[in-house]
Each structure stands twice: as structure tokens, then as C-alpha cells.
Amino acid sequence: MKLLGLACAIIIAMLANTTFASDLRVSITYVMREQNQAPTLSNLDPIPENLGLIGAELGLVDNQTTGKFLGHDYTLNIITLSPDQDISTLKDQIDFSQTIVVANAPTPDLIAISQMGANAPAVLFNASAMDNTLRDDACLPNMFHTAPSHAMLTDALAQFGFAKKWQRWAMIVGPQVHDRALAASFEKSINKFGIDLVARKEWTFDTDMRRSASNEIPLFTQDFADHQMLVVTDATNDFARYVVYNTWAPRPVAGSVGLITSGWARSVEQFGAVQLQNRFRELAKRDMQQTDYASWAAIRAIGEAVTRTDSNDLQTLKSYLLSDEFALAGFKGRKLSFRSWNGQMRQPIVLAHHDAMVAMAPLAGFLHQFNELDTLGLDQPESNCTAFQED
Amino acid sequence: MRFTLLFALLCSPAFADEIWVTNEKDDTISVIDIETQTVTRTIETGQRPRGITFSKDFSVLYVCASDSDAVQVIDPETGKVLHELPSGEDPEQFVLHPNDKHLYIANEDDAITTVVDTETHRVIAQIDVGIEPEGMAVSPDGKVAITTSETTNMAHWIDTENQTIFANSLVDQRPRHAEFTKDGSELWVSSEIGGTISVFNTADQSEKAKINFEIQGVHRDRIQPVGFELTNDGKYAFVALGPSNYIAVVDPTSYQVLDYILVGRRVWHMAFNADETQLYTTNGISGDVSVIDIPSLKAINTIKVGRFPWGAAFRPTK
Fold this sequence. Notes:
The complex is a heterodimer of chains A (391) and B (318).
Chain A: H1 2-19, E1 24-33, H2 53-70, E2 72-81, E3 99-104, H3 107-116, E4 124-126, E5 143-145, H4 150-164, E6 168-173, H5 177-193, E7 196-202, H6 209-222, E8 229-233, E9 253-255, E10 259-262, H7 273-284, H8 290-309, H9 314-321, E11 328-329, E12 335-338, E13 345-346, E14 349-352, E15 357-361, H10 387-390
Parallel strand pairs in A: 1-2, 1-3, 3-4, 4-5, 6-7, 6-8, 8-9, 9-10
Antiparallel strand pairs in A: 10-14, 11-12, 12-13, 14-15
Helix pairs in contact in A: 2-8, 4-5, 8-9
Chain B: H1 2-11, E1 18-23, E2 28-33, E3 38-44, E4 49-54, E5 61-65, E6 70-74, E7 81-86, E8 91-96, E9 102-107, E10 112-117, E11 122-128, E12 133-138, E13 144-149, E14 154-159, E15 164-170, E16 175-180, E17 186-191, E18 196-201, E19 207-212, E20 228-230, E21 237-240, E22 246-250, E23 257-262, E24 267-272, E25 278-283, E26 288-293, E27 298-304, E28 309-315
């Protein structure tokens, strides 16, 4: 009997040795707010229903592959909220002291989630909302941001304009809240990088542009002072697509259409990105978008912290994510890390049109005393975030 | 006597060794004649050729045609593809076992290392490794093969007897290349995004040293070690630092960087000439090869090749 027990113990030890039995469990919860598609003039590019989610799932696969060699077991619990569902229903579903939350949801949801986790050592990630305020005075104590801020995107375009010496801009601002937020961010970037805004107009049309763009847009842009680039803010991709090639003056269009700025684009191929694009496409049967990338990056950041600390303790992971040791390879040619003052992930920003990448910001020559990536978005002296540091 | 013979060989016009370079975005190989420092032949390959190595007697050439999902076996005399080996999907790099028979191939898209018998053309093993395997090495005694995986950030130690992993070592972000020292006592692994080379003791897989790089005027995030080679005399290791456009010269005993040599843009991999007095580096973005004179540690020439040169291999022509 004793011998049998010993034999069993040996067999179990052998099994443990060869199968790398899981001894560390890491729970991640992905919260996704379904959104009604905003009505747009064209339905050419519907927002995928699984936007973000597939990025998270790919991140999980990547983590699990690493985890199996180390005995780390990752689980991804997905919670989907319908457009009208009360956010407070999350409270009973999430134990913030046991799971890391990655949220793909609008700003009001993020604020509510942050408050729910206030009494736990919660580690939260925002993978979708770009509002500058979340990185500024309205920042949240326990929330990292893997989605780039508007400021990072608009700074990237301003750097590009400066580098190209296309420094006289005109701007068309859409009517939606996000269009205006983006425009406000552009105005800040314009000041920061010495661009001249020579004309600015609000988009007020309510007709169907598919029929009249060729008549209306030339007139609408005819009185713009001489400019070198026309910037359009249209967060829902409603009207901007009709501006291109219909302007009075032959000028490149940028912003929400034409030369776009984003955390990710289908045309990113350098830095081994083809591998990530291929793995994503195989899983999603579509191209990877910014929210997919931000969701992937959040889950990979968690994985990297677990791998290096060999821990699933939330406080340990948070400290590591904010330490100088943390670095994530994100297929954008530079190591990604988190800003200690507001939890924003430092990352290069892609400037691309539909068919190719044009540049990657920060552009050459934009220097910084610590990290060139901090020339994009709210640098420490620019950010009024205090809540994140206090935590 | 030996010296005379060597001298005679060196002076002989027939002694025109070659450097073979894969051009990733041209689907070709450029053959550089060392004597004349010119490209004498351009050989067509499958899609996206990357890893390149000759058999031990230089009678055949193996090329990873990544996007054709094949390892091509090419006759170096004629440049014709003799046959293809089953390689698994998206082969990026490989290493030929000292037995001259087994190719260990990294399948980048599939998180697998494939072992192919070059004689029977059969896959003899597929080993699950981390995400995006790339760097491949085999110990001089042939007992251990290494795969490094870029996204998993590990070196996987494979027992070549039973083709299974017996250890995993974490390295810094995005490992790209692995080499054993000539005596087999150390394994070196470069980490592109981490910006380091990790040195391990082969005997117990413990980490022995970490090499860091610093170039005045270049931000450390742009110093990205990728390919590297160690000289046979144990005097130098040459490390390609990617987009910084420099090659680092490292002392392999003290692990100190001795010098940095400016080469072309986005330097990837490299190959020595026969007596290791010259080093040829592939410069991806500038589409050329830099020639470094090793005694003086200076870049002495640039040779235009195809688009995005990646791998390099030396071929003696006797």
C-alpha cells in the first residue's frame, strides 16, 4: 500500500513535470457595451459587431501559449451589455479583487466601472474610449488606457503637417459630440506644434450627400483661405468620405478620412506586424482595427506582467505595469509602456490611407527629454490627472 | 608549407568565394562575388525568401520561402530548384543539424518547430513552441536545438534525441536570433525590442550575462539587436542593431561592447568570408550589403542587392 502510494506520487510528479500543471490562475473579464450603429449616409463600412472582442480573444491565445510553458492559466470571461442595459448590473457579476477588467465601452460606463472597483485593488483597462478628459482632470484612479487618446492622434497629424511643411490647415467640424471633441483636440495640437488654422467651418448639411456632394462641397470649401491640408472631424464616418476629391482647391484631406491617424490600421506591415495581422484575420475574417488592437494590447500587457512577476496578485501586477521594467512588444517598432501620471499606454500612432501606411508618429526629429513617444498626447506637465497617481 | 598553399589559394583567380543574400521583397537571391565585390548572379526563389543555409559540403542550398510555405533545395551551380521540402506553414528561419540531415525550421504563423529529414523529405517531428518562433540554433555536439519565440519571449530548449522541449528560458521582449558559442558552452539570444542579448550556460540553462548597447545620439528604443555571429577565434561577436543602422562589436569573454560600426539602414543578418577577415551585413531598408573589414573594424564597401535583403550565407568556390 505504502509502495503504491509512493509510485502514485512519483507518477503525479512526473505528470506535473511534463504537462506543466497550472499553478497560477489569471482571470480577465472583458466588458463590452453593444452600441446601436449611428445612422450614416453610407453603409459601406459597418462597425463589426465583434469589434474589440476578437482582439481580446487573440491576446488570450497569445497569453495562453506563453502560459503553458510556465504553468500560468488565463481565462477570459466575456460580459456583453445591451445598448440600454443599466451598468449597475455589472456589480454582481464582477469581483474586482479577483479579476482584471478590460472594458470596451463609452466613457460614462468606464466611470461607473471605476467606481464599482473603488474598494478593491482593481486593475482596469480602457480599450476603446479616446476622450482626452480621461487622461486629464477626469482621469480614473484604477484605470489604464490602451486605446490612444484623441490628443495622441491629433498630435501625430500635427507632427506630420510640420514635418511636411504643410502648416496651413483648414478644418471642417462635424456636428456630433465626438466630432467636436476631436476638433478641440486638433486645436490644441495645432498650437502645440505651430500649425496655422486659416479656416474652420461647421458641417451643417442635412441632405443626402451621395447625390449632391459634387455640387455642394466645392461651394462649401470655396471661401477657405489658402491652405495646404484640409482636416475633417467626423468620428462616425458619416459625411467625411464625400469631402475627398470634391473640394474647391486641390488639397489633401486628413483627419477622419483620407490620411487618417489611428492606433492601428490594416496597412501596418513593418516590425513583424504581418504576423499579428495574419493571426487576427484568421480568427476574425476581417481586418484588425484600433479597438481590436487596444484590446489585444491590454490582455498582452496583463500577460507580460504575469509572466515576468510570476504572480496573479493585482497590486503586484499594477506595480509592475507602472515600473521601468515593463515593456511590451506591440508590432509598432518601439516598446510600449504606461505613463505613470495617467495610465495611458505609450504607443506609436499610425498615419495611413486606405492602401498604405504613410508614416508612424512620433516622426523623426520630434525629440523628448525622456521618451519620444511622450511627444504624442498629454505629457506629464500637460496632464492635470492626479487621481491615477494617488492610487 | 601551409602558408604557401594558403597564399597560392588566395592569389588564384579561381578562388572567388561568394556571399548569398536572400531578398525578401524581390523573391530572389543575389550572389556576391567576394573577389570583385559585385553581384554576379540573381537567382529566383519562392515567395519571401528569408532563412538561407548551405549543406555542410556546400552541394545544396536550403532557402525558407516563407510565403510559399516551403523550404526550397537549390543547386548552387545552376541556381535551379531541385525540390522542395515539407516545412510546415510560413518557415522563417532554420538551422541544419551537425548530422547534415535534419533541418530544424521555425514556422512563424503556427507556433511550431518542424524537423525535416533532408534525405527522405519527411517531417520527423513537429514541436509546439511559443507564438511566432523565429531564432533557431543547434549546439555544436548536436544534442540541443533552440527555438526562440518572438511574442512568447522565450528560448525553448529541445532535446534532439526525442524532439521534445526540456526547458524554457524567458528572455527580453521579441527574441529574434540564437547562436551557441563555438565550444557549445553558452547560448546567446538577441531580443529586438528588449534591446539586449541574454547569455545562458548550456549546462544548466542558467542566465550568465546580459549585454546592453548604447550609442551616442541614438535613442535606446531604436537600438534593436537582431542577427549576430561569433568568430571562430572567439575574439568577437558582431551584433546587427536593426534600425539604429549600427553593428556592435562585442568581446565574448567580457561581454563588453568594443565598438560600433555604421552600416546601411535596418541591418538584419550577416555572414563572414572564409578566413573571417570580412563581414557582410544585409541592410533591409537601404537594399544593400555592407562590407566590414574585421582587422580594422571599419565598413569598407557597400554592394547594391535586391529589395529588403534579409539572410546571408557564405559559399566557398575553391
